[in-house]
Every structure is written in structure tokens, then in C-alpha cells.
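By way of example, we now present a protein record of this kind:
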Amino acid sequence: ENGDISCLGQLPPPMADPIGRDADAVEGVRAGFADDGVLGRRISLPEVSSDVDFSASQVLKMHLIDSVVHTWDVARTLGKPYVPEDELGEAALRIALRIPNGPERQRPGAAFAPGSDAEGVAPVIDRIVTLLGRSPAWPA
């Protein structure tokens, strides 16, 4: 409350090389999807579901929408604008439009909060974040 972060408990120490760690993670994703036969595979994502394996295509779409939305999160946190390139924004919007907006979004730990009607919302990144339960005006 009122800027008091004591409720967060003990914060971990800062990473020694967060940029290097991120670059390593990006390279791991790229390497994992570099094989020509990857799109025919099923992939286990226990952090999403322990009951279902996903097609590589679904995993790539999840990764894309996460990357776009979390880039927006970071940019907004830093007070910077974020406008994805047209093709990327349109691809992310097509994915966001297909993510169910039902009661599963109200469960604890849901990937997205309940979305709002984004018809007519512009620019495309604002429409995406609105569909996924964020406010384009955040952190205002």
C-alpha cells in the first residue's frame, strides 16, 4: 500500500547479466524451432497444461503473443512507446482475437485477465492489450 513493497517479502538479488540471459533464452527458442520437421511435432508445456501437448504451431503463436505483450509491458513500465511493425502487430492481433475470453480468465493464475471489447480500438497494440485484459492507458 502507498508504495510500501514490504508485502513482497525478500526480493532476489539482481541478475549478474540479464541481457546475456535473455539473449541465451532467445537463442534457445530459435534453436528449438530451427529443425525443418518441428512443425509436425507436439510439445509439452507443463507450465501451461500438464494434460495437453501442443502443436509446434500453437507454441509459436503463444510465444509470439507473449513476446509482443511483454514488450509492451516493459515499454510502458519504462515510459516508452511501443509500436510493433505492421506485420507483427497484425499477426499478434489475429492470435489475440482467437484466445478464448471466458470464465477461465477469472481463475487464479490465468494467463490473461478478462478482455474487453476492442472493436474500433486503435492502434493495433492497444487493441491487442485490450483483448488480453490490460488497459492501453496503463500505468496512468
Notes: The chain has a mean pLDDT of 88. The longest strand covers residues 42-44. The chain is about 40% helix and 5% strand. Helices lie at 18-32, 56-77, 86-98, 124-131.
